[in-house]
Amino acid sequence: MDNDPAQSMYSTLKNETGDDRLNSILASLDDVVWSILPETYQTTYMSPAAMKVYGRPAEDFYQQSNLWLDIIHEPDRERVLSDMSHLYDHNVLDFDYRIVLPDGSIRWIHDHVRVIVGLDNKPLRLDGISVDITKHKLAEQALKKSHKDLNDAYVKLQSLQGQLLQAEKMASIGQLAAGVAHEINNPIGYVYSNLGSLQKYLNDIFQVMDVYEKAEPALAETPDILAGIKSIKTKMDIAFIREDVVALMSESREGITRVKKIVQDLKDFSHADAEEEWQLADLHQGMDSTLNIVNNEIKYKADVIKKYSDIPNVECLPPQLNQVFMNLFVNAAHAMEEQRGTIILRTGVREDHVWVEVKDNGKGISPENLNRIFDPFFTTKPVGTGTGLGLSVSYSIIKKHHGKIDVSSEVGVGTTFLISLPLKQPVEMDT
Which of 104, 128, 153, 238 is 20 to 30 A from 253 in CA distance terms? Predict the structure, then answer.
């Protein structure tokens, strides 16, 4: 008795028919081998792997002539039929599509189809093999998504870099402004003081002139001298000079007072450093001081209406709150379209809190952006005109003061910011 395994296998294969051997090989494949008629796509052969790949037994494809077309995912069906119509151009075709399994899940399939022709060169059948490429497609989609996410992150990083540079530039300008304000303050003090002295000297001169005018009748005996005095007074229009110099001095003092206040407000605003201390402050004074600084941003775009109520002083870090006010005031001005708008400032007291409202009738904020306006670096302004940090910093400052900042807006109607601050900070303050 021959116990050689190789000889035994050879004897088994020798006894198999060619069809049995082919079916045995096809049954062992993970991919579906099939054959359909060219005109009707009716299935004439389907390998057992149909159950694994299509989720249906091969017998279903024999019994339902259009089953292959029916299981193709509907969005892909028209494209598959279009691809199949070009099959006879080269007698071979490769294409991908999706199918729907009985449980409703989607699977990606790759088909390789070849036209089998007869002696008359006419198509006899279409033979093909279907491969499940779902894992490959999912990996490809994941790779594309990762690439898109990476590209989006790169674009955002570039944008953030530009905004950071802008923020750094604005911080440098702020430091420069503080230094300039300090340097300007001294000469302004000289001018302001000198104008006061000049006013006193002019008053003294006018008093002396009054005495001389009273002495003019005593010069009646010297008509030539008296005529000369009257001629010079008429030529120089002394009466007009006396009247006009008073107005000039008043305007000059008013102008230098305004400049002095702007410089002082700028100095106060710029001193937002680590040495700040919590203190009781008048919010109205801070708002007015900030309005004075940003007046140039507002005066050409909107009218400011103040509707202040009587409110007590608030325990706070005044320079930081002034920064919040500045951001809200400037944003309100920038929200105005070509038509001049209105900014309304309201204040009030509610229980142990003070509230400040900044309302404009500008273009408003779209709903999709409203929930993002406090995000760092988010801005709807053109590149180079906003850092996207103003409202984010304002939100942090208000939170630091244990307060709240809310916003409501309607496109084409306007935006309202409402700040609520406690009158007194908790015992353990975050300094």
Answer: 238
Domain boundary among 271, 306, 323: 271
Dihedral-angle region of residue 19 (phi above 0 means left; psi in -120 to 50 means alpha; beta otherwise) = alpha
pLDDT tens digit string along 257-305? 878 777 776 666 655 444 468 999 999 999 998 898 888 889 889 999 9
Mean pLDDT of the chain: 83
Distances (CA, A) of 350 to 131, 265, 318, 355, 427: 71, 29, 20, 7, 21
Tens of pLDDT along 107-119? 999 999 999 988 8
Residue 359 has pLDDT above 90, yes or no: yes
**Residue whose C-alpha is closest to residue 177's, from 165, 167, 185, 189:** 185
Q: Where are the alpha helices (DSSP H) in 86-133?
A: 87-90
Q: List strands edge to edge, sheet with 106-117.
A: 43-46, 32-36, 123-132, 106-117, 92-100
Do 116 and 156 lie in a common domain? no
Check whether residue 329 and residue 231 sit in a common domain: no
